[in-house]
Amino acid sequence: MKKVIWIFSVNADGVPPLGYMGTKAGQYLFGNGIKFQKELKAELMPEFDLEFISYDLRDPKVPTADLIIYTDVDEKYLDEETKKKGFSIPYNLYFMNDTEKIRKYVVTNVKKIAN
If you ran DSSP here, which 8-state letter would residue 76 be given? Predict the structure, then answer.
């Protein structure tokens, strides 16, 4: 099983959401965010283990994973090594709250890149 990490938020001072920088991916998926995460995890199983995390800028470490997902807006806060291990999701999909397009984009890219 391959490990996939989705950087769902970027934290600047250890106290989200006040320390938050970037897109706040979850704000556009609230209401169906937990459901969305569970469904996406289930769709990628058993080949991929998907975990959602907050990236801490105070202690930036490359997440241990085969593939890392992040938004194109959050990309500017990530180090080059982290970006090389993954792909970005267009912020516009979050803004439009288009969970179906986000799901398709993630599933397609995870399967294509991680294999």
Answer: G
